[in-house]
Amino acid sequence: MSFTHLDSSGHARMVDVTGKTPTVREARAAGRVVCAPHVVAALRDGTVPKGDVLAVARIAGIAAAKRTPELLPLAHVIGVHGVVLDLEVTDAGVEITAAVRTADRTGVEMEALTAVSVAALAIVDMVKALDKTSSITDVRVIAKSGGRSGDWTREEP
User: What is the pTM of this model?
Assistant: First the structure.
């Protein structure tokens, strides 16, 4: 088996996508922040002392998607043309989903995962004074479309 991110000597390299034709691509990712019931109540009531948790998390996630190549050394710098970040307060905490779109030479799975991860971190940061046990779980790609490998959707129970 060969690895695209290793050269013939086994050294890390960035894959050259110069010859690829730009196509429309999308990736969706999801994750959750598990919080104590009193934090869920504060999120629903809008009474978290640090302010509007969901608004901050949404902006943090969108900004993070655009900065993915700064965080992941082998990620390509691509045009992130659209990011939708949805947050839903549930009885267990906050469900996060991100959809990232581009018309470029490589996919946006890492951008979608980064958006979800940083949105989750922003939530934890804003509620940590209320609940030091909040945790980030289940960050995963749930679907992708476009590109050479085509469409894929995670089968979840």
Answer: 0.91
